[in-house]
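ARCHIVE RECORD
Type: protein–small molecule complex
Small molecule: adenosine-5'-triphosphate
Source of inputs: curated submission
Record status: active
Notes field left blank by submitter.
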Amino acid sequence: MTAHPDSFVSIEHVSMHFGAVEAVHDVTLKVTAGTIFGLVGSDGAGKSTLLRMIATMIKPAAGRITVDGHDVAAEKNRVKDLIGYMPQRFGLYADLTVDENLRFFMDIFGIPRPERKRRREKYLGFSNLLPFADRPAGALSGGMKQKLGLACVLIHEPRLLILDEPTNGVDPVSRQEFWEILGEMRREGMTILVSTAYLDEGEKCGGLALMHKARIIDVATPAAIRTAFPSLEAAMISRLQEADAEIGKDAFFAHPHPEPPAEGGESDGYPF
Ligand SMILES: Nc1ncnc2c1ncn2[C@@H]1O[C@H](COP(=O)(O)OP(=O)(O)OP(=O)(O)O)[C@@H](O)[C@H]1O
Ligand SMILES: [Mg+2]
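STRUCTURE (tokenized, with ligand):
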């Protein structure tokens, strides 16, 4: 069934636009089964749009995406069963407790009664949330909320986990705990596709795609991207600058230019 022997996600010449804005331009990418694959890049590069297409939330305007050989457009429900998707702004119910949120997701996914106790203990346990099971989600710290979000999408034990900047704004210790859970899930055989703005997280991925202005401009292991640079960050900045020059030569590039700053804007005294 799988098009490529060990690629769990296959993206072929996929494009997406919103009106005149080209959000994803002719992206081709394979994600190997059982790996943690990272998507990094500049703001507005198209990371969320790409992840939303894989997660069946929006249909590609062109090209084809398969998950374990199933076409995301033609076999949407089949693909939905295979994935757990945590969007950039994941909606927990703030008034519901940790347990009630989890139960809500177990209901949605139709987790059978005999399974529920085991899964609750496993995923709340992973997230260190068992002592907070009766706390309203709205009263959790930022890091705990994200870990509860992760527990909610893990609860149906998907084969592919799609996480869109799941640790944004989370403190370093909680980010590390979050990634320890991802490592554990990978060891259990899950394939994980995650976008991140943190390059220390990029270092923890088996493969990385660097995205800029709707395109994938590099795909390699973190070590290969970093070669000849003091850090992944330095390598990325250099690669983005090179890509800007290349994309500038493309006469058909449809990305709009940012608005020039309004004249006479207020200054707060900072030079940046
Ligand atoms: N629903 C939408 N309607 C109109 N434009 C959109 C929509 N979603 C995304 N875009 C535009 O598409 C481009 C890519 O956006 P996207 O959110 O995919 O980027 P991103 O890499 O996730 O950015 P960020 O790092 O800020 O999360 C941007 O120019 C964005 O403004
Ligand atoms: Mg995004």
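CURATOR ANNOTATION: DSSP finds nine helices and ten strands in the chain.
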